[in-house]
Every structure is written in C-alpha cells, then in structure tokens.
Amino acid sequence: MKSMRNVPTPIDVAVEIEDDLVALLAAVRQFSTRNNLTPLVASSLMTIASELGTNLVKYARCGVVTGGFVDATQENLFIEALDQGPGIEDVKVALQDHFSTGGSMGMGLPGVRRLSSRFEIESTRGKGTRVRCELKR
C-alpha cells in the first residue's frame, strides 16, 4: 500500500513497542505547538495518533505513523498509520462500536473515524493496513 503524502511529513515515527508511543505523542505535541494548533485540534490529533499507534503495537506489531499538513494551505492536517501486519479481516465490522478482537472496549477505530473530517482505511489480509485521517485546522 502506498502512502498518499502531498507535502513533507513533520511527524514520522516508527512504532513497534509501547515505548514508541511516547515518542509518537511527543512528536504530535511538538508539531501542534510549533504550528499553533488550537487545544481542541491538538487534542484530537493526539487522540487519533494514540489510537492508531496503539493498534500498530497491539495488532500489527510494527508500522509507521506520519502526519502533518495535507497541502501548502495548512488548512487541513492528516495522520496516517501504515503497517505490513496481518490486516483486518472485516473492516466494516471493525468500524462498529464495541467490536474488538483484542479484548478492548472496541471504541478505537470508530472513535478515530468520528474525530476525523475525512477517514480512509484499506486493509488486505496478510499484507497490512493503511488508515488515513484528516482534520480541519
């Protein structure tokens, strides 16, 4: 699967173990501060990054989270998680509230979708998953 990057990505963190989530959130926090994002937008970005990063550790075992501005206007932001893990068996079911294959509350992906102004997910069993979320600044 190919990332759909349009501009350089100031957030670019490999995520393999739980400790990497700390580095990911630090990168998102630094990006938010550097770009004067409102507390609400920064919080949404942190929540999305945390959920996607946690899914990488829990289900894919490793991947990368990138993010930044969609284009030079800097009006829209994106966060994208990309992995080469086992994939999601049924994306439609995985996006339902309270569905979980890992014993969690099953609110991660549905919550991420609700926080996003645009949400894309593609997954192929045995090849990996790409989740891209966009938010308005």
Keywords:
137 residues, alpha+beta, Heat Shock Protein 90, 5-stranded antiparallel β-sheet, 5 strands, 26% strand, globular, disordered N terminus
Q: Got a strand count? A: 5
State Rg: 14 Å
CATH architecture annotation name: 2-Layer Sandwich
N-to-C SSE series?
A: EHHEEHHEE
Please give the largest β-sheet: 5 strands, antiparallel
CATH topology, by name, is: Heat Shock Protein 90
Low-confidence stretches: 1-7
Provide mean pLDDT, rounded.
89
Query: Can you tell me the number of structural domains?
Result: 1
Strand coverage percent: 25-35%
Q: What is the CATH superfamily label?
A: Histidine kinase-like ATPase, C-terminal domain
The helix tally amounts to 4
Distance between the termini: 27 Å
The gross shape turns out to be globular
The CATH class assignment is: Alpha Beta
Which structural class do the helices and strands define?
alpha+beta
Helix share of residues? 25-40%
Strand order of the largest sheet: 1-2-3-5-4
Map the helices and strands.
Elements: E1 11-15, H1 18-34, H2 39-60, E2 63-69, E3 76-83, H3 91-94, H4 108-115, E4 118-124, E5 128-136
Antiparallel strand pairs: 1-2, 2-3, 3-5, 4-5
Fold and architecture overview:
With 137 residues, this protein is α+β, with helices and mostly antiparallel strands. It has one domain: Histidine kinase-like ATPase, C-terminal domain (Heat Shock Protein 90, 2-Layer Sandwich), CATH 3.30.565.10. It is 37% helix and 26% strand. The chain has a 5-stranded antiparallel β-sheet, with helices on one face. The longest helix has 22 residues, at 39-60. It is globular and about 40 Å long. The protein starts with 10 loop residues before the first strand and ends with a strand. Residues 1-7 have low confidence and may be disordered.
